[in-house]
Amino acid sequence: MFVIGSSYYSFQGDIKGPKTNALLGNIGYNAGVLFNLSTDLDCKISFSNASFFEKNEEKLPGASILSKGNNSRVIISHDGAILKCDEAFFYENKNFIEAYGNVSLNQGDTLSLNSNYLEYNGNNKIVFAKGDVILNEIESKLFTQSIFFDRNLQRAYYDKNGLMIRNGTDSIKSKTGTYFANKKRYDFKINVNLKSPKYIIDSEELNYLIEDGKSFFYGPTYIKTKESDIYCEIGFYNTTSDIGHFIKNSKIDFEEYTIYGDSIFFNKNDNYASAVNNIKIIDTINNTITTGHQAEIFRDIDSMYVKQDALVAYHTKTDTTYVHGEVISIVGKKGEQIMNAFYNGKILSGNLSGKCDSIHFDQSSGIAKLLNLEKKQENNLRTIKRPILWNNKSQITGDSIYFKFNLKNNAIDSLFVFNNVFIIEKDSLELGFNQIKGKNLRGNFIDSKLKEVDIIKNAESIYFLRNSENELIGIDKSKSAKIKILLDEQSIESFTKMNQIDGKVYPEEKFDAKLRILKGFYFREDEIIKEISDLFKGDKKFKKIKINQLQN
Question: How many domains does the chain divide into?
């Protein structure tokens, strides 16, 4: 037995005899000597095989030199690790090894390290290797030019560029990296680039779990696939299942639209994405921007669902139409989209606004429908809150309201109100209300502005007649088959009664207050939508969804 660090040597094998050199003081053995570590010295490095053994105190003070033979290599062991090389220098007092040529360090059957050169400290079990370094584990290989490996912590580190390949598919480059053997995890930093057959990830910091291909990234990160470009500053992606979660300034850019959100979940296999908090979906094909705080997108069926302050903005060359609802769904391809705004639906387009229970828009026909609200109890009276429009100072209600859009320019072309039509407008001096009611209504738009309205069938009206100096002439109350109304920028300019059945002009002082209101009168001035913020009045206050930090 040959014991390093003891007071005796015991040799096994045929010793052909020592060689001495008077000048160098060399002592050498050329015998295929076997060296074994004593059981009471587990902290010491032991040599189990070497063809040549020598000392050269002048050149390598304190070192034992071991070299390979024709058919064997130097074999060194320490605490479960086996080191093989062509030549090794062992510093007995320091319990330190320098290994040269075709170096391999094996730790059990799960981890190995190959290099041209290696240093090993038996006291702290720190390894340094350089020159064509390859760190092998069951599912991955790391290629670099130099590496540190702490066997106590089971941690390897490189700082001069490295390339990791997993199962021959995923490859990751970075300037620096740390490998945690117990966790089978890599932490890559600085200029990180991950490539797989399906995507490319560029990041400043990326943590990678070898067993399942999960990636966690921090700092500005770009993910590119055939179908999408993704950006975030904190995120997760499973390279095996193609499922990702992106938070902090996250964005997914598809060919047809771009999704923004504080948190975005993405399943590439199902072409599905969900997002929460500060969502914005820009549809460049249909010229729409959809916002909200919760959304689901199904690309395979061309559909999305948005809620919590949900809003769709339809942009044209001349105007923008905003649609709001508690829940908004958009389904279909370009030219065939169907949009539904459910519950507390509202619309705003220039000087035109409205609200109802639900809004339905069919892009193929260009028709938008404002549908009836349910009955609500107000002031101990059961009142039907019908769909309502405001056009400047005019209020229009009915059981249902339809808009027709011009399919060429997407501008509002015409208006239809069905059943129980009622138009209310304050008199210019607010002495009362101009009122027109009937069964149905048809209106025409010019340059997205309502200019002409026809009240069809069973028309009734109360109108404050004024001269050019805005002096009151009288109050007209009448019934007719039809009424045509012309509007200017602000209000009713004139109306013409057709096939009048009866009517009378009253002096103001003789027009009884009880006669000044038509049956069904319901003025809803406090609900007028004047700006975008008004679209959200009456909604439940939104609380941002808590976004949990990613755990790796």
Answer: 3
